[in-house]
Amino acid sequence: MADIDLVRHGQDEDNLEGILNGHRDRPLTDLGRQQARTLAGKLNGSGVQVVYASPLRRAYETAAIIAEALGLAVQVDQDLIERDFGVLTGQPVASILDLPADQVLHTEGVNYFLEAEGSEDFPTLYARAGRVLTRMHEKHPKGHVLLVAHGDIGKMVRAVYYGWDWKAGLMTPYLDNTGVLELRAASGIVG
């Protein structure tokens, strides 16, 4: 399989305001655009051959800034969209702690809700991440692929790649805005 770099989008307006965004489609902030430009400079000369992005504006805009700097085009992959947060969409991040304790997973850096009305559960998100990696393997058996996505789907892509279950994937380090995960035989978080 190709080398894969998975990037979380730059800061968007919801990130700035401490809001759970999920499928909300708000743009990058000025800082988010600068983060994308900075990352593009770091990726210049890295050998990235193709760029895929979530259809949500924050990820697509991040990908477009990077792709332009690399002389590439952005391809949208619908399965890279962030987890649907259901009724928690648009709520303050702190509202996760108002849920029953058995519906919250506490990790270093972030708390995850496991259930909320209308939300996508992690086993479903994990399966979607598997579809992304299957497509990447089929389309790009060699080379260097850049995926620009979101926190929760990014953790599930990493979990599937390494053969971990979804819960183990959530327990891995949090990926900051424009953080990069190098998915290789031996890798870690860079950026």
Task: Please tell me about this protein's structure.
The protein is of the alpha/beta class and 191 residues long. It has one domain (3-190): Phosphoglycerate mutase-like (Rossmann fold, 3-Layer(aba) Sandwich). It is built from six helices and eight strands. The chain has helices at 13-17, 30-43, 57-70, 122-139, 151-162, 166-170, and strands at 3-8, 50-53, 74-76, 104-106, 111-113, 144-149, 180-183, 189-190. The strands form two sheets. A six-stranded mixed sheet has the order 3-2-6-1-7-8, with helices on both faces. A two-stranded antiparallel ribbon has the order 4-5. The longest helix is centred in the C-terminal third of the chain and has 18 residues, at 122-139. The protein is globular.
The tally of domains stands at 1
Low-confidence stretches: 187-191
What's the number of helices? Answer: 6
Tell me the CATH superfamily: Phosphoglycerate mutase-like
Largest sheet: 6 strands, mixed
Shape, per Cα inertia axes: globular
Distance between the termini: 22 Å
Question: Structural class of the secondary structure composition?
Answer: alpha/beta
Task: Report helical residue fraction.
Answer: 25-40%
Order of helices and strands: EHHEHEEEHEHHEE
Task: Give the radius of gyration.
Answer: 16 Å
Topology summary:
Blueprint lengths: L2 E6 L4 H5 L12 H14 L6 E4 L3 H14 L3 E3 L27 E3 L4 E3 L8 H18 L4 E6 L1 H12 L3 H5 L9 E4 L5 E2 L1
Parallel strand pairs: 1-6, 2-3, 2-6
Antiparallel strand pairs: 1-7, 4-5, 7-8
Keywords:
191 residues; Rossmann fold; 6-stranded mixed beta sheet; 6 helices; 36% helix
